[in-house]
Design a protein that fits this description.
This protein has about 160 residues and is α+β, with helices and mostly antiparallel strands. The chain is built from five helices and six strands; from the N terminus they run ααβββαβαββα. A hairpin with a 2-residue loop joins strand 5 and strand 6.
């Protein structure tokens, strides 16, 4: 069997506190994971009931799968953004989703005002912009647009 790169492992109890703290530090990005509003115990019960969480180096990856349609929504949160760790984490995520989990489509939502995330996404040639959800979030008295990006398994395998 051809080697497809390292398989991601779901985070365990040792990494759960690290994930919680990382999301609290990035609460202004409004990830949809309410770490800043919940105590750790309640947060960990909530997130584990909704998504899989992986750790790749200093990057936390969330994956919410729709098994019937073989699609998954993902999120990535880097402890030290701007140092290139997101690229390796994205490649590991694609390997995990497309080669091990049998997904056909990975997608994410990104706030249009999140310049660092938009810059990182621009580096992913296979990640396609599919549209914009206008006024999708209401935060701090204003509406914020979200961009939708996706990659298909066939594109990942053909690269």
């Amino acid at each position: 069997m051809e080697e497809h790169g390292a398989k991601l492992e779901v985070i365990g109890a040792d990494d759960a506190r690290w994930a919680y703290e990382l999301l609290c530090e990035n609460a202004e990005l409004d990830t949809g994971v309410p770490a800043n509003n919940l105590p750790f115990r309640e947060w960990s019960e909530l997130i584990y009931s909704q998504s899989l969480y992986y750790r790749h180096g200093d990057t936390l990856i969330s994956l919410r799968m729709d098994q019937q349609n073989r699609t998954a929504m993902f999120g990535m949160f880097c402890k030290n953004p701007g140092v290139g760790s997101g690229q390796a984490a994205f490649e590991a995520l694609c390997n995990q989703a497309f080669l091990y989990l049998g997904m056909q489509r990975l997608w994410c939502l990104v706030r249009v005002d999140n310049d660092m995330a938009m810059h990182a996404i621009a580096k992913q040639a296979l990640l396609q912009h599919e549209g914009t959800l206008r006024s999708a979030l209401y935060r701090n008295g204003r509406f914020i647009d979200l961009d939708i990006f996706a990659i298909l398994g066939e594109d990942w395998r053909a690269r």
